[in-house]
Amino acid sequence: MKMYYDNDVNPELIKAKKVAIIGFGSQGHAHSMNLNDNGVEVVVGLREGSKSRAKAEAAGLNVMTVADATQWGDVVMMLVPDTKAPKIYTDDVAPHLDASKTLMFAHGFNPHYGTIVPPKDVDVSLAAPKAPGHRVRQVFAAGGGTPGLVAVFQDASGTATDLAMSYAWGVGCTRAGVIQTTFKDETETDLFGEQAVLCGGTAALVKAGFETLVERGYSPEMAYFECMHELKLIVDLMYQGGLNYMRYSVSDTAEVGDYWAGPRIVTEQTKHEMHKLLDEIQDGTFAKMWIEENQNGRGEFAKMRARDQDHMIEEVGAKLRGMMPFVDPVTVKPGE
After folding, report:
1. CB 3.0–4.6 Å: which of 101, 136, 154, 293 could bond 129 by disulfide?
2. Looking at residue 165, what is its pLDDT?
3. Catalytic residue among 29, 31, 96, 107
4. What is the reported pTM?
5. Bridge-partner residues for 128, per DSSP?
């Protein structure tokens, strides 16, 4: 699979466009600020009364309503939550789209599952940095870049790929390398990674290990250090050199524990459930469930969020991180 870098793309394509960034959250702030720093004309589109307006203006960016930004822009990048995007699109974006504009996404969820259906004469593409937005901005500001994905959903003009690659340059992804993919593959692998490994799998493993030690009489503080705090140290080794470098860096006792215990924790049944998760992502079951949950007021989601916010590991962790200023502790709760 070919990787595309700065020398493989034409920065002048995106520099010649006016880019409307819809939203100023994690990804929105990173895209708009990186593009602006790279000499691209940017406007941030926000709803009336948005709390993000002051943040965007403080960053030196112009702010318009979503409708006005869509009318103004040649490229309209949707960077609002998946569940809010269809209404924002229908109310404020779709009425102002025409064949002269490009509609872009950083995640293929809505076009792939049909909750947003763009006009056939509009280019629709994707540029997705493979990192949370705050990291995308931090790495860019330090002179680096975040790897990314580029895909095309509709190529009405015949030049959608070139412009998407140029946009990826604008946010810094071609500094690190970009892979060309499809909306289907980006959406399905992203959802699977979040659920099975990065968020769902990791959080469940951390909590289960913590609970096991506490239930067997060990102090919550020791359980936190073993199952949460040290996880970053191991993941950093994997990030630098893969599993081999992690195993090279730990003791032989830790390495043999990896080989002996790992398959007892992540069993064939676990992999069977992973396949089921992927099936539900591919056939739309997960998307349908998540869309309906939002349409019904997010009651079950709110219960799950509240339950985990009050888990003992969060209470213990906040106390211990407060004693370790070197980790630059942050205290937040999802939804705040």
Report:
1. 136
2. 98
3. 107
4. 0.92
5. 149
